[in-house]
Design a protein that fits this description.
- This protein is mainly α.
- The chain is built from four helices and no strands.
- Helix 1 runs antiparallel to helix 2 and helix 3 packs antiparallel against helix 4.
- 26% of the residues are buried.
Length: 140
């Protein structure tokens, strides 16, 4: 069980870290539309780091839930917040596609990225609070 928790925490750190980094990376890409040659860093971070980490975090979290068998209102709240985080993850993908397919207006694109970044920060904080405030203690 300790290995599963360690795997879950490591995947969460990678996923949340990449989600906090992605909006800034996408906004920077929108400011340099003429330099669209070769492999795009934002697409590589999204597909090679953020998405696999998200899938691993969700799979290991599901396995932890099944192993512990704990259920309560805190879990429903946590899963709802994680679902919103998954939606923001998908929104980052949409912003990357928009950056690649059209010449974005840097100001409008920057606003979208700022909103996504702020929402990610709030959701990550809310998930941490929910987990740590659950009955019976934190991280268990």
């Amino acid at each position: 069980m300790i290995f599963l928790k360690l795997l879950h925490f490591a995947a969460l750190i990678c996923w949340c870290g990449s989600l906090l980094y992605m909006p800034a990376l996408i906004a920077a890409a929108a400011r340099r539309p003429g330099e669209r040659e070769g492999v795009l860093l934002e697409r590589a971070v999204f597909t090679l780091l953020a998405t696999p980490a998200a899938l691993l975090a969700i799979a290991s979290g599901s396995a932890l839930f099944l192993q512990q068998g704990s259920f309560g209102p805190w879990l429903v709240l946590k899963l709802g917040l994680v679902s919103l985080l998954v939606c923001l993850h998908a929104l980052c993908g949409v912003l990357i596609l928009r950056t690649e397919s059209e010449t974005p207006t840097p100001l409008a694109h920057g606003r979208h990225c700022l909103l996504v970044g702020a929402a990610c920060s709030l959701l990550i904080g809310g998930i941490l609070w929910t987990v740590l405030a659950k009955p019976g203690g934190g991280w268990a």
